[in-house]
Amino acid sequence: MQLPRILILAAMAAVASIVPSEPCGATVKVDPLPSGGVSVTTESGAAVFDSAQPRVVTSTNRDAAGAFSGWTDAPFEDALGKGTAYTASFESLTWEVRVYCGLPYVTAQAAYRNTGSEPVFVESLSAWESEGASLGPGTGAANILDNGTLTRPDAQLWTAEAGEVTGLWNLAAWNAETRRSLIAGFLTNAEAYTQLTLKRPQDRAAAAFAQFRAECRYTPAKKVAPGETLSSEVLYLGVDEASPLEGLERFGTSVAEWNTLKPTRRALPHGWDSWASHYHTDIDEASMQQELEAADTALKRYGWTHFSIDDGWQQQAGAWEADAARFPSGMKAFADAVHARGMTAGLWTEPFTVNTGAAVAAAHPDWLLEPNLVGLSLMGKDERVLDVTVPEAYDFLKGVYRTITQDWGYDALVETDFLYHLLAVNAYTDAAATHASALNRGMQAIRDGAEADTFIMGVAPFSIVSRTADGMRAGVDCAPIWRNDGGTWSWGCVDTLTNAARRYYLSPRVVALDQDCAYFGHDETRARWNVAGYPKLTRDQQIAWMTGAALTGGAVKIGDAYSLLTPDEIDILRRLLPVMETPARPVDLFERKDARLWSLPIDSAIGQWQIVAVFNWDAEHGTTESLDLTMLGLDATTEYAVFDFWNQRYCGIARGSFEAELPPGSVRLFSFRRREPHPMLLSTDRHWSQGATDFTALSWNETERTLAGSFDAVADTDYALTFLVPEGYKVTGSEFSGLETAIMQNAESLQVSLHCATTAPLAWSLTF
C-alpha cells in the first residue's frame, strides 16, 4: 500500500528528529525509517535487519495497523537495563523498540488499540517482521536451533533444506562462515502462543534469510472491545553476541530477570520413576515400601534422598484420592513413611484431566469441556478437560493440591502431567481466555494450592509452563534403549540427552531440566517397554546415560527398580549426586547434529578446574576425538593434568589440544587441572566432579613438602584419591585420620585407597 505524500513528509520529519547513533555506548544501532520500520546493525556496522516492522492480523483485516504517523523517543529503565526506547505510532498500533546501553540485544513490543465502534478479534500480533535477516555471506546455510512446535516438547537442530523453520518461544541461528548469530525469543507468554519463523532462501550462499517473523498467535482469537488495547508479548533479539552459546545463555538469564524467576528455587527431586519401571501402573503400598527400603539402605547416604510414586495410586483422573485396594493406609501415611526415613516424597498427578466416572464430573458437568479434534487424538474417550476459567473449578484444583502437599505432606509433584490437555479445547467458559492464558491460570491454581516449598515438575509447552514450574520435562518418555530407530514411540539415551543439551541455557536460569529416566535396562524393565528388538544397553552406554543426566544439572532419575539394582549399578549411582548448580555447556551444539562435547567449569572450595564429557553416540564404531582446549574454555598456553574419571586413569599433560579415544556408544569424563610444580590432587572417585562436592580444604606447604586436605566422608564407602607426583618427589609419610590405607605409586601418579566406616569429616596429609 502506497502512503499519501503528506504522510510520507510527516514521517520523514518525525524521523529527522531522531538521533541515529545510540546513547550510552549501545552496541546495537537501530535506525527508525520513514515507513515506520527500523533497520538494525551491529556495533561493527554489519547489517542484520534492513526494514523490520510490526503487524496485526484480525479476523477481517490482514494488516490492521493503519497509516504510520511518526516516531518518538524516550529514555527507559527496565529489568534488563536502561537505554532509549523508539516508538512508532500507527493509526491502530504502537510499536516500541528498546535499545540497551552496552548490551548486544534489543526488545520490542507491539500494542493494538481498537479505535472503532465494534469489537475486533485479533488472530495474531507480530512484534517483528522483516523480509530479510542477515548474518553475512552464507546465511542461507546457517544452522538453526528451534524449540519445537506448539504442543510438541521436542526440538530439531538441523534443517538444511530450503523452506521455513518454525519454532515455539525461541530460536537461534548461527552462520559458520561469518561466525555471526541471531538469538530470538519471547520474554513473556501471558496470553499468546509465541512463534518464530525463519524462511530460508533457495540459495544457500545467500547473505540473508528470506523472511523473519516473531508473532503472537491468539487461539481462540482475542476479542478487543472498542477503546481497549491488546499488547503483544515482549520480544528479545540478540544480534551482536560473541558466540551463539553466550547468546542463548544471555537470553535464558533475561527471561529469568524479566519474570523475576529464581534459579533452582526448590530441591531437585532426584530418584526413580515407578511408571517407567517394571511395575508400570501396577503399584501398591507393599511394593512401594519395598522400593523405599532398598533406596534408603543402598543410596540415601549418597544423596538419593527423594522417593516418588507415579501413576497408579489414584482412584481415577479427577478423583485424586488413594485407591483403597492398593494403598489401604492412604497417601498421607505413605508420605509420613518416607519422611520418617529422612527423605522427601513426590507424587504424580494429571491436573486438567477428569474421567467421566469421577464424582466431580457428575456433580459439576459445567466445569468440564469436550476435547477438540486434537484432544480426541490425545485423550481417552471417557476423559474431559477441567475448565479452570470457571472460578469454582479453579478453587477445586487448588483444593486438590492443598490436600496433596499441605494435608498429606508431599514435597514434590513429579509430574504434573498432560498439561497440554488444557489446550485441547476450542474455547473456555471465560470467553476472554486464550489457550495460553488458560494454561497460565491453571498452573497458578496448582501453585496457589501447593505448599510454598513444593517442587512442581511440568511438561510441555515450555514457554508457558516454565514460568510457574520449577522443573520441566525436556522431551518425551524414555525407554531402555540407546537410540530410537523408529521402532518405538519413546526415546533412547541419545535422543533424550542431545535434546536436553539443546535447552541447556534454560537451566537453572528459568527452569531445571528433566531429561526423563536413565536406565540400566534390566530384563524386567525391557519387557515393560517391549523393546526386545533393540540391543541391551552395554555398561559403557549405561554410564554415558547416567553421566549425561547428571551433567544437565536437572533432576536425575532412573527407570529401573531400586530393589533390582546390582552392586555395580549402585556403585555407579553413588557417584552421580549432587548435581552442580549449572549444567554443562554443549560446546559443539552448532557444530554437529548431536552435541558430543560438554564442558563444565568447576569453582569449588579447593580450586578451579574443568570437567569435560566426550560422548560417542555411534553404537557400532569407536572414534578418536581431537579436543581444541580453547573451544572448551581453557587456555591454549597452559599445561593441564588430565584424568579419566570412569576408568580411574591418569591421561598425561595436555596443552592446546587433547586426543580422546572412545569405544562405541560411550562417554569419557575428564578433569583438566592446571599443572602444579609440586604434588597435586588429580581426582577422587566419590563423585563425577572429582572433589567439588565433598572436599572442603586443599593446600601445599612448600617448607614441609606436605599436601593436605579434608573431605566429608560417607559411611561404609570405599575411596580412591589420585595424585600427580612430579619427578623427584616420593612419599615419606601419610595420615588419613587414623584409617588404614593402601598406597600405590608409579612413575607419574599415586593412588591412596581407604574405607570410611562412618559419615564424618576426614583430614589427610601426604609428606614428600
Structural features:
768 residues, alpha+beta, Beta-galactosidase, Chain A, domain 5, Immunoglobulin-like, nine-stranded antiparallel β-sheet, disordered N terminus
Description:
- There is one protein chain.
- By secondary structure, the chain is of the alpha+beta class.
- It has three domains: 5-258, Distorted Sandwich (Beta-galactosidase, Chain A, domain 5), CATH 2.70.98.60; 271-573, Aldolase class I (TIM Barrel); 686-768, Immunoglobulin-like, CATH 2.60.40.
- Helix content is 17%, strand content 36%.
- Strand 1 (28-32) and strand 2 form a beta hairpin.
- The longest helix is centred in the middle third of the chain and has 17 residues, at 391-407.
- The N and C termini lie far apart (84 Å).
The low-pLDDT segments are 1-21, 150-160
Average predicted confidence as pLDDT: 93
Helix content: 10-25%
Strand content: 35-45%
For the biggest sheet, the summary is: 9 strands, antiparallel
Helix-strand category: alpha+beta
Could you name the CATH topology of the largest domain?
TIM Barrel
Got a strand count?
A: 47
CATH architecture call of the largest domain = Alpha-Beta Barrel
Write down the overall geometry.
Answer: globular
Oligomer: single chain
Distance between the termini: 84 Å
Q: CATH superfamily membership of the largest domain, which one?
A: Aldolase class I
Q: Cα-atom Rg, whole angstroms?
A: 28 Å
CATH class of the largest domain: Alpha Beta
> Into how many domains do the coordinates divide?
3
* Alpha plus pi helix count: 13
